[in-house]
Write the structure tokens for this entry.
Amino acid sequence: MVDTIERALARCHFPAPGSAVDLAVSGGADSVGLTLLALEAELRPTLHHVDHHLRASSGEDAQLVRDLAADFELPVVVHDVELAPGGNLESRARAARKSALPSGVMTGHTMDDLAETQILNLLRGAGLDGLSPMVGSPTKPILGLRRAEVLAIVVGKKRPFALDETNVDLSFKRNLVRLSLMNQLAAVAERDMVPILARQAELIAEERVWLDELSKLDQLRPLAEVDCRELQTWPRARLRRWLRHHLATQPGTDDSHPPSAAEVERAVSVISGAAVAAELSGGRRLSRQHQHLALV
């Protein structure tokens, strides 16, 4: 078991021993495994649990996390969150979780989560960012491990973990991808697709880093200062990347969101002169005045 953990740690990306870290711990096997690995890496973790009160057993999950913290004499914070009624439960719960947890909190996302997220992003038409999710993030230290490996560590340490019954509810897209689509892809490819998708994500991330480096000088040029006649001569990919940077909502913050592909295309039509103005997310409007863009 010691050898198993040592080999697993070699594929994790934790900070230096002795570092104080925040861990998001739901009580499931992945987050319990994250805690065990962080302790093996000689870190000083504080456990954070978000109780959405969406399930009758949510109180038991919170207690499981408290017990885990007590057994290892770790500080623990339980964040109680109430969700207002509305659609897209997954999205609202994720947003509530993000707002409750401290910045930089580490999560127990595994290589399987990366592959599933990549597929989900592909289905909604994501670009390079969506096809290389989580890669290189310091908040995802166990991304190099498979879900089954983390489970084996938890079971080997005889630690209890919570089973979320909603994880088998096929009305949630992620569960459908996890329990059905990934198996179908493996059958068609005649091999396990998770490592293949993870490697693809890493390659795309490397391309992204290179493109970001190339576009640094472009990003320094403010939206309103570049003549549209010059912008019309740019390659389409360069123009889209410049627009995505400058049209992001709340740029420079943790809540920054890039514009959709449709928004970018509407902005391109303003630059080309095909449209006088374009409506964008966040109640914003992009127009062209004297060959320069104006965003209000």
